[in-house]
What does this fold into?
Amino acid sequence: MLKDYRLSMAQQDIMTQLPLELEKLQQRIKQLENENNRLTLLNKRVNEQLNAALDGTGLCLWEQHIPTGNLTIFNQQWGHLLGFTREELPAHIDSWKNNLHAEDKDWVIQAFESHVAGTAETYQAVHRMVHKDGSTTWVSDRGRIIEYGTNGEPLRIMGTHIDVTQEKRYEQDLAKLAHCDPLTNLLNRNALISAFEYEKHHRNPHHGALCFIDLDGFKVINDHLGHRYGDTLLIHIAQDIRQVCDQLLRTAELTPQPYHHVARFGGDEFVILTCCNNIELLTALAKTLLSHYQEPIQLEGETIKVGLSIGISLFDELDEFSKVCEQADKAMYSIKNQGKHNFLFW
It folds into this structure.
């Protein structure tokens, strides 16, 4: 009887403690729920801030599961950079490879696979990709393996991918300004010198001709009709010179890899640099150019008379650019003194 009473007292104690323990558990659950909500909200805000920062730079985070080749983009829709939907472009390494620019494809894949194989510390490449509309997009890629298997095999690689098309175009525009005459889009003096030196060091034997062209009567036209008209005339003549060179020099069987460059040195001075040292062909080139301006021409409603004085200097691998240019210049001035609108070999 006493035993039953004690059991009953124990049960009563348990029953007394149970609500207290239950209340403690409920309070703990509530605390965990509040903490989970706080962390969820914090994570959401961090992701929003990260995405805002990444979107502002055009940068996206990617991850590849190496064994399957599946790709994950964390902060952008897959394919968005190239104008594709997920249905059009599966999120897979093969899709990425297939949209690499043909001229960059081999070396970019090699750079990526070198890192995966362990021969390169990281994967890093600035390259071109082909947009859905056929245009070219420049991107900067970086990646590093972040997980290996039990046998040391790479499992996951994570990296960043950023569109740098605008930056690349800006670089190209700057390079163009540094090497091209902004009015006629021909090469400038520095670019022509660089071309001469490049051919001299990469072509054996190195020979050819430099044609120095100065316009006759340009100053009178420029003063009478204004600088805007003078600029229009320079553009017109630049196009004529380039067209004649393309027709006569590019089609001629000069060397296995013929070349010619056309430049404007400033003012009304034009220069042709060519690997052609055939006097008959160079004579035909000069006569063709002169024939274009033998008679007055019509340009923007005006009838004008302009001539060309052309000096030509042949060169070989022993000649320096300054010497060749000086000789052609002197031959040109001889034409000026002899009546203009003609040509002369040094």
Q: What stands out?
A: The chain has a mean pLDDT of 85.
